Structures
1.
Amino acid sequence: MRPLEPDDPRSVETMGRRYRVLARIGSGGMGVVYLGRSAAGRTVAIKMVHPEFAADHDFRARFEREAKVARSVGGGFTAAVIDADPGAEVPWLVTEFLPSVSLRDAVHTSGPLAADAVWALAAGVAEALVSIHGAGVVHRDLKPANVLLTADGPRVIDFGIARAVDSSSISRPGEQAGSPGFMSPEQVAGVTAGPSGDIFSFGSTLAFACTGREPFGEGPWHAKMLRIQSEPPRLDGIADDGLRSLIESCMELDPERRPTARRLVENLSGRGEGGVPLPSAVVAEIDRRRTEAENPPPAPPPQPAPAPQPVPPPSGPDLRRRGPVLGAAGAAVLLAAVVLPVAGWYAFRGDGGASAAPASTASAAPASPSASPTSTATRAEITFSIEGDGRIGSLTYMVNGKSTKLEKVKLPWRKTVPMPEWPPRISWKLTYRAPAGGASHTVAVDGNVIIAGRGSAGSDMAAEGLF
């Protein structure tokens, strides 16, 4: 937990409900998580999205829908969503604060859990899935990082990519959501992922808790996804035969053969009584985080706004006689000097470095050196690839809101876009209709494949994400 930064909010409010912001818990690709307190003194976690997403109408609509979905999930083994304001200038969500350690961090620091702890963990997470699926929701990203170990048992968190079961947006052909290594085979294939997909991820999570390693091995993302579709999970090292049998049933390749969450709860009845026996180091860390939340680090005093700098008067002959005219001309030149670097930077960012500022703007004044693409620091490269035979009627790729549509594209096709250093979060999307012979696509960042999918003839393919 860290002190607030000068630009961090000190409170959020909606419909008369106000939450004080006390400290930073952490940040990720979608936003920042703060420690907060309600007016009644309840300790909460406040999740605020990054400002660049707030201007995206599609993102706001999705945020509102998913906040509503998350609030519909109850039960004792999930983190309750208390409040939300999707319409705020910067949308935010409030959940209960849980002094905890994620299963991922606990295993990384203290090693695999003992068998009795895994049985208790399984009982709690299975009960959470009953609540989630009972609310008509599919989590779609169940993994060790999204299972918190608390003094009162496990909690399943993060419905950031959850979908209502009856929603048409649950999944689209070619779109994957989840984390490689814990995704179900149907997620990897890009087909509709239902509650049984969460059961597969449940089994993968338990295997990690037992062994300390992912059940499909380490390596690049695309290698893990290929193994999920073609190889059985690695369950060697699970000495408890009952646990191994449970995990194998959850990780059946055929979704119809996996147990339901309700059946799991019935089979695990009594296993979770008394909570999850945790390693002493994990218990100590949970206690430390509870104490830290009760005494958050003080925020620095607000910094005064910098004083405006005086603009020097224009220089040159006959300024007093022709001051008003030259003043307007000076303003035009100053405006061009400000606009030109920005226009050149955005053109470079949008199409990967091929174009410059529009000619009508470029003629107003010479661009400064900072406007040149060659001086822009490169953060990463994102590469879109489609393999197959024949032609695609049209395809669209989007990076940070800038879409490019191509017609009559001959396969194979590949496009690499260099990404500038700012902003630190990159959104992207690729859509196309597969040709008669079918096609496969990959999206890679700095050569590491993050998404892979294949479409049959005539199928509409779509993949999107953030990094």
Note: Residues 323-351 form the longest helix (29 residues).
2.
Amino acid sequence: MSTFTFHTLESAPEQSKLLLQDSQQAFGMIPSLHAVMAEAPNVLEAYKKLHVLFQNTSFDAEELTVVWQTINVEHGCHYCVPAHTAIANMMKVDPALTEALRNGEAMTTPKLQALHDTTLAMLRQRGQLSEAQIQAFFAAGYGQQQLLEITLGMAQKVMSNYINHFAQTPVDAPFKPFAWEKSD
């Protein structure tokens, strides 16, 4: 298997150095995911932009967590599930919700369950939702905007989940207490 380079500020391509400096300032470290993405500066830049754009959607902290973790768990991402558990804790998301997502259990409210179900259906059905699935999502209190915004979250998570799989990104020390493995 190929060994991917996990760049530092010194080893990164010139176009990635400022992006990694920003990561260092934001996280107090360079997350391993960013370090591997730095090999392709446009990938790192796109990922970081998608992250900011998704955080600025109409979703609140719990809803962001539902979308992120639904995707992370479905994809079996050994890196992103613990990372987003730590992020959820920083965002003051109810730990019961985070644990439900990590363990494939029911969400804490019917509205969050509808968001989880719709995100999961979009993933599994490659965006081909039935009219009944769309109407159930709308009946839960969401609209077209949120359906589109789930797709934005998916774009971000496909990048990170897939890269973590093939690069075998090691889980960073701050996320290790939240280690996770997909159960069969």
Note: The first helix runs from residue 14 to 27.
3.
Amino acid sequence: MTSPSAPLWFKSSYSGGSGTECVECARTGEGALVRDSKSDVGPVVVVRRQAWRVFIAALVSGRRAP
């Protein structure tokens, strides 16, 4: 049995300009992973595929949560 490959993390280009407010994301087959880029061993938020798609669509359209 092969071990799963490590996630390919990328930094958000919209996460603050000072370098203190960055998040990183990694895509998975089931959705996405999100973490604080300053703590690569810290907690990771797992977001399912449909929720991630809704989130990205809202960002693209400029919609805000009620």
Note: The mean pLDDT is 82.
